[in-house]
Amino acid sequence: MDIWNTIESNDIFDLSRSEVEVIGNYNLKQKNVINIDEAQFQLYTPYEGGTINLNVGFEEFIDTHENEGHSSLEELRTWIREKAFDLENENISFVSKRGILINIGYSLYKPNDDWSFKVCRKDNVLYLSDDRKNEVPTREYLRRASYWCTNFERIITGKADEDDILSYLVAKLIIGDFQCIVAGKTACNDEDGNFMEIKTANSRYYSERINRGWLQAYLCGNQKLLYGLRDQKGYVKADEIKVEDVAEVPNKYQWQGNWSASSMLGFIESVLKYLQDNVPEGATCSLRQNNGRYLLHLECENQVFLR
After folding, report:
1. Out of 40, 101, 223, 242, which residue is the most buried by the measure of CB atoms under 10 Å away?
2. Which of 293, 266, 301 is nearest to 116 (CA)?
3. Is the model's pTM score more than 0.85?
4. Dist CA 4 CA 183 (whole Å)
5. How far apart are CA 37 and CA 167, in angstroms?
6. 104-122 CB burial, b ≥16 within 10 A, e <16
7. CA distances from 45 to 159, 199, 226, 239, 270 (A)
8. Which H or E run includes 33?
9. Spatial distance between the Cα atoms of 122 and 134, rounded to a whole number of angstroms
10. Which residues of the chain have pLDDT under 50?
11. What is the Cα–Cα distance from 249 to 260, expressed in whole angstroms?
């Protein structure tokens, strides 16, 4: 059924009704969860070189496009099982990788993006999982932009090309009335122990695009957001590398870029409330956005993605 008129953004969502606490971590190596709560993290040191050409190595780049929206929920469920984390005792309503929540919140500004996910209710906890196959960008500019971000992170962290270990944070996320367990990737931490998100953006549109970066960093507990401001050809000048405090980004940029942290978190809360109210125990549903319309399909497939 069409629920576009049912789910609306809460533009007056009070940011004090949302908080994030990092409660664990793990590494991912070739899709295997390792080092639970003993994850290895790259150490960030300020970049002191010259202009960075992010195109170096692009010809050898193979884009599998395995972003967080398409990563397996089973990784997070492994952490929950290994830690014997009591979801009921902790009053957890939702378990999700952060990519799904990013897609929901950011859809206010990208209503024509196509995304979908499945939701299953088991023991009164709703599990959100992406149900689409990976899609590799076909346009060369989009492939380059994907590579620029990957390459910039590698340069800034000093990560070796052959190092295929990814680092994830596990956070308890409160959004309004809901407590969620969310996992998301972190790039590194600084000498003070702050976890950092690393991204690139066209320098001309920084204040407009930082909303997605902020949401991505915030949802899983990254405290710092580092951006390499590039030109159209993929070059970043040394003085165009910015490190932002995640907590300060909304007040600093949202009015410049015509975006609202309250709207994004308020809309996520509205979608979670709809799912909480409408997905019955044992049922699997799918929610998808296509051309700006939200469609909720109830399916009678018991625990399709929960094994």
Report:
1. 101
2. 293
3. yes
4. 28
5. 11
6. bbbbbbeeeeebbbbbbbb
7. 12, 16, 12, 15, 39
8. strand 32-34
9. 26
10. 1-2, 4-5, 65-70
11. 11
Closest CA to 182 of 130, 134, 128: 128
Torsion of CA 144, 234, 200, 203, to 10 degrees: -130
Answer yes or no: are the C-beta atoms of 11 and 266 closer than 8 Å: yes
Token pair for 218: 């915030």
**How far is residue 288's CA from residue 113's CA, in Å, rounded to a whole number?**
10
What residues contact residue 138 under an 8 Å CB cut-off, 6+ apart? Answer: none
Residue 262 dihedral angles phi and psi, to the nearest 5°? -60, -40
- The tens digit of pLDDT for each residue in 60-84 reads 876 554 444 445 899 999 999 999 9
Whether 256 contacts 262, CB under 8 Å: no
Identify the residue whose tokens are 């010259």: 50
